[in-house]
Every structure is written in C-alpha cells, then in structure tokens.
C-alpha cells in the first residue's frame, strides 16, 4: 500500500517532521521500523537482564523473568505455553560467547559490526580497550540509563566493516545534529558536572579501542562531542520483556469467567510483588537509532505513539487518533503524568532534556497561563527525573 508517512524538511529551527501521505485510522500501525544500530544498556546487561546481543529480544522465559524480578526461584507461572521464548533457537558467538536469539541475529551482527567488536578470549580481561571503555562509561552513567557508549562503538564498527563506508556515513549524518553549545548541553546532561573531564577520558578510551582514519573527525574533541550529542538527542529507548509478552498472550485467552478473574488477580498481584522487589526496572532496556522515528516531532497532545510489541528492537508507530493526509505525525517525549502538568513544567522538562520549547496547540492555548507552577507541582518538580522520561521511552 506504499508508505503511510514520509519525512519532510519543515524549517531550520524545527528541522524535519513526519507527515501522513494518506489518511490513517486511529489504532492503525503507521510503520514498523528496524533501527540502523541498537545496543543494550550496560548496567542493564550487567544486572542479568538477558537480551539478544543484536535485536534485544528478551532471552529468559517469562517464568525465569518473573522469578528473577521477584527474587523467588519457586514461582510457577500458569499457562506456560503462552510464553514465546524459544531457547532451542538461541546461539552464541563461538569466540566471545555473547548470546543471540537466533542464527539470523548472530549472522546479522557479524556482518554489520561484530567482527570489529568481538572480544574473543579477552571477554573478561579488564585491560582490553573495549572493556576499559565500558567500565568507564558505567562509572559515569548510573541507572536509570538513557544512553550507551556502545551505540557509538557499533556505529564506528559498522563503518569499519562496511564495503560502502560513505553510504553508512551518510545514513548517520541524516540524524538531527546540534550546534556546539547545544552539544555541550547534551553532553553535560548525560555526564553531569564533571562532563568536560569525563568526555575527554571517554574520547581517549574510545580512540584507543576503535580509531579509524576514515572517521578521524569522530575522534577529535569536536567530532566526538557531536557523535555523543547525536546519540543523546536521537537515541530512542527500547524495552523488551518476555513477562509482558506472556501477560499480553494471557489477556487474549478465551477463558471461563471464574478462571479469567483468577488469572487477572494472579497477574495483578505478581506485578505488585515485583514492584516491591525490583522497582521500575522491569525490562531489558537499550537504545537505538531509527531514521523515520527520529523525524517525529513532539506534541503534548500526540496523535501517535511508539511501542515494541514484537519483544525485540522493531519499533511500531501506532496512530492514537485519525490522521488526515498531509497532517504532521507527532509523538510525545513526555510520559502521561508529565503531560498533565502545567505548560511551564512541561517546557522545563523539554528544554532540559531535548533543548526546545514546545509550541503544540496545547502549549499555544496555555500561552497566557502564569509561568509559575502550582504548589503541588513545585513539590513534584524535583522528581521529574530521567526515570520518568525513560518510562515513556521504553514502554512495551
């Protein structure tokens, strides 16, 4: 049926936007997109959130997933046949033992970037340049995670391995880029107060691990900062979970009323217990760069939303309203709670995290509202941290 949406240049201030090429009905999938590159977050992997090293598909069965999050190995899930995980298909890299969900993912990773990044027998050697880079990153960027140095490493490795290097360089260059002082602000946001010294340390480790003369600009202080900001601005959070897949499958079962009520009560209690034990960290989490999705501008009243229903890095953009041909398709960078706050509070979050002031219809309608937050908002002001932004980004 041809693409339902296309990217168009709006203005130098706004950059690109995504527009409907035909009318789209509420609930329709506008597109499904595969990232040009993706990577699991480093703390997430360290804490045994086991995911395919390529597509981030959760590798634990739903039952194992629930047992780990609960800290309770005796838990038994009903309807185990509703779990979609196929362990018989899992494969490891024979050299470094990272795990993939399938032969296809192992092959895709090998062809795109893994030859350069495979640690082989040095996997546990703390002095290996790539391990030093990852360790430094973990020490700078604690959970909740919003980005990963390995996304940048995979970009470099992809170009190193590519026959057509210019094609990849061009692909990466179409992501929204920022001015030098905006880049600095993003780096600051990701690294905190000590960012200048930390950025320089990362650059030296990044250079030691990955230097390539084709990309020499990316290894200069300016080029590295640009690359860092590109990932910070365009990286889309990805969340996968075999447990949530199992829950969706159970929701779809046709059960007698009493059994349905029992199952729903079991699932509700399970999530309450998990929250006590593991808090908000339920998913395998990472981030990726998506060419089309990165063109979606923000609105406080979005007409579309992103999700990961396939339990891997395939991003689905779904219409929340009917959208007419020619209309701009917008998503929200804020979660539901943040969207309910005052215009002043919303824009504070957007300026700090995404470096723009929103002028969506809701913000324009509230333009004359006082620029102060109400008392209860004042109290909540300190809590709008990245964790909430992340929730919105990684909902599955």
TrEMBL record:
> What residue spans carry the Acidic residues bias annotation?
368-396
Q: Which domain of life is it from?
A: Eukaryota
Say where the protein is mainly found.
cytoplasm
Show the segment(s) annotated as Disordered. 367-396
- Please name the InterPro entries in this protein's record: SET_dom (IPR001214), SET_dom_sf (IPR046341), SMYD5_SET (IPR044422), TPR-like_helical_dom_sf (IPR011990)
Q: Cytoplasm: is it a keyword of this entry?
A: yes
Where would you find this protein in the cell?
Answer: Cytoplasm
Q: What class of enzyme is it?
A: transferase
Alphabetized UniProt keyword annotations: Cytoplasm, Metal-binding, Methyltransferase, S-adenosyl-L-methionine, Transferase, Zinc, Zinc-finger
Question: What Gene Ontology terms describe what this protein does at the molecular function level?
Answer: histone H3K36 trimethyltransferase activity; histone H4K20 trimethyltransferase activity; zinc ion binding
Q: Which PANTHER family match?
A: HISTONE-LYSINE N-TRIMETHYLTRANSFERASE SMYD5, SET AND MYND DOMAIN-CONTAINING PROTEIN 5
**Name listed for the protein in its UniProt record:** Protein-lysine N-trimethyltransferase SMYD5
Instruction: Tell me a GO biological process for this protein.
Output: regulation of cell differentiation
Q: What reaction is this protein's catalytic activity? A: L-lysyl(36)-[histone H3] + 3 S-adenosyl-L-methionine = N(6),N(6),N(6)-trimethyl-L-lysyl(36)-[histone H3] + 3 S-adenosyl-L-homocysteine + 3 H(+); L-lysyl(20)-[histone H4] + 3 S-adenosyl-L-methionine = N(6),N(6),N(6)-trimethyl-L-lysyl(20)-[histone H4] + 3 S-adenosyl-L-homocysteine + 3 H(+); L-lysyl-[protein] + 3 S-adenosyl-L-methionine = N(6),N(6),N(6)-trimethyl-L-lysyl-[protein] + 3 S-adenosyl-L-homocysteine + 3 H(+)
Asked if Zinc-finger is a keyword of the record, the answer is yes
Which residue positions does the secretion signal occupy?
A: none
Cross-referenced SMART domains, in alphabetical order?
A: SET (SM00317)
SUPFAM superfamilies, from UniProt?
SET domain (SSF82199)
Q: What sequence ranges are listed for the domain SET?
A: 5-334
EC numbers listed for it are 2.1.1.359, 2.1.1.372
Can you name a GO cellular component term? cytoplasm
Q: Which organism is it from?
A: Chauna torquata
